[in-house]
Amino acid sequence: MAVNLGIIHLPLGPLLQAELGVPTFVEHDARAAALWLSEQAAHGSAPAPASVAFLAIGTGISAGVVLDGTLLRGDNGFAGEVGHLVADPEGVLCACGLRGCLETIAAGPGIARQADEAIAAGRNTVLSRNPGAGDVFRAASAGDEVALEITGRVADHLTRAIRSLALTTGIRRIVIGGGVAAAGPALLEPIRSRILRECADSPLVQAALGDASVELLSPIEAPGARGAAAIARHRIGLPQREGVGER
What we know:
It is built from nine helices and five strands, in the order H-H-E-E-E-H-H-H-H-E-H-H-E-H. The protein is α/β, with parallel strands linked by helices.
């Protein structure tokens, strides 16, 4: 199922396997990336963290979670679909059929849509029609009021998603990736500042997130592709080669 592509049921693995004649496995890109991240850390200077969450923000939003060394898929295969948690019940219609899902606000198309709506409403902004999410973050960095309003809203909702991941899974390392992560500090710093504010307001949040690592992973790292290789290796039963996580 890939609602952003309009696909409800497509047996992609068996179709590819029949066409290519080789073992074929299909996995969620965010989950694959999370597995790669957990393995990559094992070859660094520090031991691998037992748990990591990869929050992918692109056309949609989802999370891949490795908890105590185990990749979470869930009994129904939908573990980590945080992009379809409802953030605004009165919001716009999501591709999944619900209104106001997180990804309608904080994913790339949702960010661009909010900018277009502001432009159509005659708001004073340096943004032009049909901007990308990157254009909005660049305008925010330059001090554009409309862009700052949009990116602030995005940061608010992503901070809540990160808090929810930390509180429901106990994870202390959250890595943000996907196309929107290319915004760099313009995306990360507002999230970090909001986390610090929440930690100051709540002893509970301080305990859960006070020493957590929230970091960005550049899209050029291709975590989904690297994770796909890790998934295939696991499914076939091949051992991980020493140093593979450092490449």
